[in-house]
């Protein structure tokens, strides 16, 4: 026993150490060839080679310098220096060409040249490359060879590594396995894996290089080492039967409308408890960024639908550019949903927050109805509803209104599931309407939902061998997309102006498997568990409770429905990996809409829905087991645990109740074109224009300022041209752009601090006002006070 335990611990420790220190999820190889096609001949004892600007991408990294040198008739020693920093010398034999690999621990940010010095001239540099790798392999064994001083970022938090160590040690593989003919081939394969792991761990100890394995390679090697426990598991599941066609009802009963109303009321209470800070501060938002952007989109859509629907997408930002509403998600359906509130006189901020919270409640309610339709019972369906309603992913995106509008996803799956297994054309209609509604609510989710639904329906069709119904479902999804054709036409029309997302940006916002262990900073329970800060939109940890329940729900035997959900969830997980995964590069290559997607990691919402549904399945299994688990007390206990698991820490900032009172003379039909000051001369800081867009919900005057998912070339030029404002040629430049009015809001002149709150620099604004008042080309129209500082409106004289 002790021999097997020691063997298991050693094997687990080696596997975990390799995974934690010598494995990468993704690795951006940067290779800059300085000399490649024409040899550089040393005319005298010293040769200087200038480095191209591209090497700036390597600044701060451990860098490999790879060169090939052909010697003279006698051996020579060549000295190398990077910007005066001496590197190791190397010997070049007589009349031979040799490859030299050297490295530096950290590439200077402003590296300019490499100097080579030798006793005599005549030798040649036939190749010179500066890179962050010495070599790589993309074959079955994938790895990169990097400078030995390069630190490898751990892909797992320490607590996960410790948990994995315990789990692997508990598997206790038998050293004597297998018996018979396969023993020798297996021993050879396992020995090769152990040798590879040993080389990866010790390479940088005995050489100047480090070897880092690709994650798929590590998985393949781990499968070899743990082949015996894997075979045990396969035999276990095979004996129990992977697929259970009769253990649970294929289609459950639809809930009564009174039950739906009661579940909705319960979800209102759950969301109000979870987001109590927001309920107590209805005129506050998490930051003065995207929430203001969403308020502007709602106001513009409602105004234009009533005034000029034919130019709905020609928003009032980035004048004179057209189609600027298509530079981001247009959220047409959520805007229409807010219309009754705004018509009733509800303040835009309060209406926005009510609409935001409705996304939590309605998403949970739709999941409850789907769970009841799947036969989960009340407690199981309620568990699914609560998990999907309070998913930590939602809290991480609390500033993004459109990313809360996921209530159409469960309804689309409900329609597909009931039609595939029970028929009924009304469910085809539900599928088409839900897909179309998702397009008009969140285009990201609609695109991802289409992929999820396709896999879900395909698996059900394969298991039931009903290809006719699969074709009808495909027709319903296509009909839903056709209902969104006006939307598609508008976005296709502005495609040339917007361009495609650069691959570098998509790669940065493609998740890695480790991101599913990265909690959001808004999590009260888990935020401090990972010392690494969350990267962009890639804090995807769903919490312990949903994972544990989902594993129980996905445990074989699986019904056809659960198998379809499992495979769809796997596809969604792989889709969230973006360019780090397998499916997304194909989607990007062959499906045009995916070329406008910036954040593949948002597939995680469908991963969360899958976890929620499997959690409901786990509770349903308990309900059908020998010990019933369907009492209200059980539902209350599960709800409390889920709320504790998802409990957030929300920081809110109040929004101005009214704009500066200088916009009274302006309006959408006034013929004015506005430039709002201050304007940051750095075009990348165009998010500082969001307060102006919020103010424009009161007047909707065309403006040259703006913010959206894309940046226009016109705004880029404008921001750079305004660096000298109000002096130089800035006023004539604005006149050429068609600007008729200039606003100056001193409360926004300064830097933007935490949560996007502006910090005023009054002296700077006073100087600007003095220059404007002294300019004869400008007429001061209105002057008032706002937030304790001047706010002025000027008109450019004709």
Task: Tell me what the structure shows.
By secondary structure, the chain is an alpha+beta fold. It is 47% helix and 14% strand. The strands form 6 sheets. Strands 2, 3, 5, 8 and 10 form a 5-stranded antiparallel beta sheet that branches. A hairpin with a 3-residue loop joins strand 11 and strand 12 (142-147). Helix 13 packs parallel to helix 15 and helix 20 (544-553) crosses helix 23. It is flat, with a radius of gyration of 31 Å.
Topology (SSEs and partners):
Blueprint lengths: L1 H20 L1 E2 L6 E5 L4 E2 L4 E5 L12 E8 L5 E7 L2 E8 L4 E8 L8 E5 L6 E8 L3 E4 L3 E6 L10 H14 L11 H24 L2 E6 H11 L1 H14 L16 H18 L1 H5 L3 E2 L4 H18 L24 H12 L4 H26 L3 H13 L2 H5 L11 H15 L2 H17 L1 H22 L2 H17 L1 H9 L1 H4 L4 H6 L35 H10 L6 H17 L7 H7 L13 H21 L7 H15 L6 E2 L19 E4 L12 H6 L17 H9 L8 H7 L4 E5 L4 E3 L5 E3 L1 H13 L3 E9 L2 E8 L2
Parallel strand pairs: 1-13, 16-17
Antiparallel strand pairs: 2-10, 3-10, 4-9, 5-8, 5-10, 6-7, 6-9, 11-12, 12-13, 14-15, 17-21, 18-19, 20-21
